Amino acid sequence: MQKAPKGLRLHIGIFGRRNVGKSSVLNAITGQDAAIVSDIPGTTTDPVEKPMEFLPLGPVLFVDTAGLDDIGTLGELRKRKSVKVFDRTELALLVTEANIWGEYEEMLLTKTKERRIPTLVILNKIDLNGSGAARTLLDKKNIPYVCMSATKRIGVPEVKQAIIQIVPDDWYKQCGILDGMVSAGDTVILVVPIDKEAPKGRIILPQVQVLRDILDKQANALVINERGIKQAIKNLKIRPRVLITDSQVFRQVSEETPDYIPMTSFSIVFARYKGDLSTLTAGAKRINALKETDRVLICEACTHHPIGDDIGRDKIPRWLRDKIGDGLKFDIVAGRDFPDDLSPYSLVIHCGACVFNRREMLTRICHCAEQNVPITNYGLVIAYVHGILDRVLAPFQHNASLQWYR
Hints:
The chain is of the alpha/beta class. The protein has 15 helices and 14 strands. Helix 12 (311-324) runs parallel beside helix 14 (378-385). The radius of gyration is 24 Å and the shape is globular.
């Protein structure tokens, strides 16, 4: 609970063939046995994640992957999972043996170049193979690389320094969740219902992150539940800068909040912070075009256990069926199980993606655009079906986008 959430960490993907020492590189950089190491090709199956405080970058997340030259039926499944790691990678480490450079390495470079991912090549096992052929080729292509022996811990400081050097300067100037909306001295009301799915003794992650951003901005937060809105507003001596609520109680909060107080939701705040608010808003406005025979995809970034009247699995489908018709069909995916083929769907509805980094959410938005399938998010859908979309977008009128480095 004291660690930075994964979605706020710089994601560093480690890619390469089988048995080139990717897991050994991870262990050498982190100084721990984070991944199992073996001479047997294909030891790494599912991606292995290792969070770390990497100064001066701050919190990072290393993701070790299976070899992209894996073979067989299971190998194909492992390769698919490895390729999906590109969707969230913000910096890539391409590991190869020091004397090997071929089609797989070129393919990996092509993938990172297409996605504009800064890439560092690591020529591993120099204690066994030297570094001649690959080094000459990389010099000609002006591709940054470092020679190391992960098992002998040779070149580890050089690898760390090279990682620092290829990270974009803007990484150190990341946007805050409420940038352009809240300033020092402002008061923000947070409406936090405690329902059956709220973790015992805690509030959910997007609420925690918004509260932290308010404190970082030297602003003031008043946290209440949905039953205390009128009294809270009455007790305030100054007008609050904005009220942010859980989307599930939009209707009640909208009725009890005076029009002069700007109002939005945690989910819509994250639509801007983790994605693209304009695109997701356009997706919400496509709801009226839905037909009763259409199919909608609901996407949850986390893999929580749903407990009765779940927002994505129960409430949103119910509200949309009330509007469109009982025949409207829904599929649910969770975690990273996002389908490659979106052709069966007329609309994709995504959660706020608080556990994803922004690159992964933007990748999904681009994936939808490439297949001409509109995408929106929970809060925007709920606001639309309750007829308050314009009101909850008003706080973003002059700050619809954030200036991110990614």
